[in-house]
Design brief:
The complex is a heterodimer.
Chain A (H helix, E strand, L loop, with lengths): L7 E5 L5 H10 L7 E5 L16 E5 L14 E4 L15 E4 L15 E4 L12 E7 L13 E6 L15 E4 L10 E4 L3 H14 L9 E5 L15
Parallel strand pairs in A: 1-2, 2-3, 3-4, 4-5, 5-6, 6-7, 7-8, 8-9
Antiparallel strand pairs in A: 9-11, 10-11
Chain B lengths: L2 E7 L2 H5 L1 H11 L7 E7 L8 E6 L7 H12 L2 E7 L2 E6 L3 H11 L4 E6 L2 E7 L2 H7 L9 E7 L14 E4 L2 E9 L2 H10 L9 H14 L4 H11 L2 E8 L3 E6 L8 E4 L3 E5 L15 E3 L7 E4 L4
Antiparallel strand pairs in B: 1-8, 1-14, 2-7, 2-8, 3-5, 3-6, 4-5, 9-10, 10-11, 11-12, 12-16, 13-14, 13-15
Helix pairs in contact in B: 6-7, 7-8
The chains are: A alpha/beta, B alpha+beta.
C-alpha cells in the first residue's frame, strides 16, 4: 500500500450528517479513501450501515442503533459501546466493539466476525445464519435464538433461554448458563469443535483456554427435525 | 415507541443547570415521541406545613390569581401562582391531600397534575421541541427530573394522557411500552380507593405503585412486585421526592441506557440523549439488566 492510500479520512459527526457520511462510505466501494476515523458519534444511529468495500474504520465513542448493519468486507472498530442491532445482518468483514453492546447484536448475520470486548445484552446472535460472534463478557437472555449457522463464543455467562429452537449453530460458553432454551443441549467436543473454538479465540485476540468451555447445540428433537413431518410442507 | 429521560444531580452547581440539560435530553428523544411531552421537576420544596400543587387548565386566559386567592382564603396564605404556559404552581399552607381535594371540589374545570412538597409536573400534547420552549424548561433548577416523549399506542393523545403520571404525593412515573392487564387492574385499584383520572395504561402502573407504597411497601418492593402483577412491556422511570428508580420488564424489549459521572446520574431510552450532557464521553455507561430495580436517592441529612 502506498502512503497516499494510508491517509486517514477523519469525519466529525457533529459537523457531518449521518447521511453524508454513509454516502461517502458507500461511494468508497468505487475508489477513494480506504482508511476512516469517525469522531463524536454521540449515539447516532446507522453509522457505517451498508458498507460494501474492504475499508478500515475506527469510531471514537459510543454509537447508536444498527451500526455496521449489513457490513460487507469492512473492518470496523468501535472504541466505545454500541446500541441495539450492532452489525445486524453482517455479511463479511469484522466488527469489534471495545465496550458493551445492546440487544440483537449480529442478528441474522450471514458471515464475518463480531467481537464484543464487554457484555452483549439480550438476543445476541438471534437467527444468526453464518456469522461468528465472540463475546468476552456475558450475553443476555434469548441469545442464539433460532440460530442456524456459525458460532457463538461466550467467555462469560449466558442468560436464560440460550439457543432456544436452535438449528446448526455451535455455541461455546466458558461461564454459567442461566437456562438452556428449548431443544438446546450440552454436547461433546469433537476435534473440529476444539479447532474451531481455538481459531475463533485467536482471531478475536482473546486469551482463553478452549478446554475451559462447554459446548451447546441442537438436540434435533423439535417438530421441524422430525422426518415424519416432511410431508406437511 | 416513546422516549424517556431522567437526570439526577450529584452537585449543587449542576442543580442550577438541570433544566437546561434535561431540555437537551428531551429534544434528543423527540423523534421517539412526537405526540406529546412532559416533565416532572423536583425543586424548591414547600416549607414544612405547606405543600405544592401543579394545576392545568386548557383555557389560555385562565384566572390563576383567583384560584390562588381562594386557596389563601381557605387555608391562610399561599405563594404563587407561578404560571408556565397552561400550568400553574401554587404553594398552599396545608397538606397536599387537603389542598388537592379542595381544588377538585371547588374547581372541577382544573386538572391536578401533581401534589407534594417538591414535585412539579408539566405536560402538553404536541412537539417536544416546542414544549421545551413554551414551558421555559431551560431556566428551571432542580435536584432531579424526569422527562417523557410520547408516541401513543394504548389511548388518545391529550394533555391528560401525556406522561408523567402522578397518582401519589411527590410520586410520578413515565413509561415506554404497553400494559395488557390495565383494565382489570384499574378497577381493582379504584376499589382500593386510588384515584385514577384517565383510561391510560401507564397511569395504572403509577397508581399500582401508589397503592403498594400506601400498604407499606418501599419503592424497591413496590417495583419488584410490579414484575409479577403488571403484564406487558415496560421500561419505567419513577420519580420520588428523593430521587428516581428504573425498572425494565424481564423480556426487555424496550430500551434503556444508564450513565454516571461525577456530577450526575442519567437514564434514557437511547445513548444519544445522554451524549448531550457535559462529561458524557468520560462517564460510565451501561444497560440496566432486565427485571432489576435501580435506584438513586439523595443522601438524607
Amino acid at each position: 500500500m502506498g502512503t497516499a492510500e494510508q491517509t486517514v479520512e477523519v469525519v466529525d459527526l457533529t459537523e457531518t450528517t449521518i447521511r453524508e457520511l454513509n454516502q461517502r462510505l458507500h461511494d468508497a466501494a468505487d475508489g477513494g479513501p480506504q482508511n476512516w476515523r469517525i469522531t463524536h458519534p454521540n449515539g447516532v444511529h446507522a453509522i457505517g450501515a451498508g458498507i460494501n468495500a474492504p475499508l478500515e474504520i475506527d469510531i471514537d465513542g459510543h454509537v447508536g442503533y444498527y451500526c455496521a448493519g449489513m457490513n460487507k468486507e469492512a473492518n470496523i472498530r468501535i472504541h466505545g459501546s454500541a446500541g441495539v442491532g450492532l452489525a445486524e445482518n453482517i455479511m463479511s468483514g469484522t466488527v469489534i466493539v471495545d465496550g458493551d453492546t445492546s440487544q440483537s447484536a449480529a442478528a441474522t448475520g450471514r458471515g464475518g466476525l463480531l467481537v464484543v470486548r464487554g457484555n452483549a445484552a439480550a438476543r445476541c446472535g438471534i437467527s444468526m445464519k453464518g456469522v461468528n460472534i465472540v463475546v468476552e463478557g456475558n450475553v443476555g437472555h434469548l441469545s442464539a435464538f433460532m440460530a442456524q449457522k456459525g458460532a457463538l463464543v461466550v467467555c462469560g455467562d449466558a442468560g436464560e433461554a440460550l439457543g432456544d429452537s436452535i438449528y446448526e449453530t455451535h455455541i461455546y460458553v466458558r461461564g454459567s448458563v442461566a437456562e438452556l432454551g428449548a431443544d438446546c443441549i450440552e454436547k461433546d467436543f469433537k476435534e473440529f469443535h476444539t479447532a474451531e473454538l481455538t481459531g475463533l479465540l485467536a482471531e478475536a485476540g482473546v486469551d482463553a483456554d478452549p478446554a475451559d468451555f462447554k459446548r451447546y447445540g441442537t438436540a434435533r428433537k423439535l417438530y421441524n427435525f422430525n422426518i415424519d413431518n416432511a410431508d406437511a410442507y | 415507541m416513546c422516549g424517556i429521560a431522567g437526570l439526577f444531580s450529584k452537585s449543587s452547581s449542576f442543580e442550577q443547570r438541570l433544566g437546561d440539560h434535561l431540555a437537551d435530553m428531551l429534544i434528543q428523544m423527540a423523534d421517539r415521541g412526537p405526540d406529546s411531552a412532559g416533565v416532572a421537576f423536583y425543586r424548591n420544596p414547600a416549607p414544612a406545613g405547606s405543600s405544592k400543587l401543579t394545576l392545568f387548565s386548557p383555557d389560555e386566559g385562565y384566572d390563576w390569581d383567583l384560584v390562588a386567592g381562594e386557596l389563601s382564603g381557605a387555608f391562610g396564605g399561599s405563594n404563587g401562582p407561578e404560571i408556565r404556559a397552561s400550568h400553574a404552581v401554587i404553594v398552599v399552607q396545608t397538606d397536599a391531600d387537603d389542598a388537592g381535594r379542595w381544588v377538585l371540589d371547588n374547581h372541577p374545570e382544573l386538572r391536578l397534575m401533581s401534589a407534594g412538597q417538591a414535585i412539579e409536573i408539566y405536560k402538553e400534547k404536541g412537539d417536544p421541541r416546542e414544549f421545551v420552549e413554551r414551558f421555559g424548561l431551560r431556566e428551571l433548577s432542580a435536584t432531579h427530573a424526569l422527562g417523557h416523549t410520547r408516541m401513543a399506542t394504548e389511548s388518545i393523545v391529550t394533555t391528560e394522557h401525556s406522561h408523567p403520571f402522578s397518582t401519589g404525593l411527590d410520586l410520578c412515573l413515565v413509561h415506554n411500552g404497553s400494559l395488557c392487564n390495565h383494565n382489570r387492574l384499574r378497577e381493582e385499584l379504584r376499589r382500593e380507593g386510588i384515584t385514577i383520572q384517565t383510561d391510560n395504561d401507564s397511569e395504572v402502573a403509577a397508581a399500582y405503585l401508589t397503592w403498594k407504597m400506601r400498604e407499606g411497601a418501599s419503592l424497591t418492593e413496590a417495583l419488584e412486585s410490579a414484575l409479577d402483577d403488571l403484564d406487558g412491556f415496560f421500561t419505567f422511570a419513577v420519580g420520588t421526592a428523593d430521587g428516581f428508580a428504573v425498572l425494565r420488564d424481564p423480556i426487555a424489549c424496550k430500551p434503556a441506557v444508564m450513565s454516571e459521572s461525577d456530577d450526575w446520574v442519567a437514564m434514557a431510552s437511547e445513548y444519544r440523549a445522554i451524549a448531550v450532557l457535559p462529561g458524557a464521553e468520560e462517564a460510565r455507561v451501561w444497560e440496566p439488566d432486565p427485571g432489576q430495580v435501580y435506584i438513586w436517592e439523595k443522601e438524607k441529612v
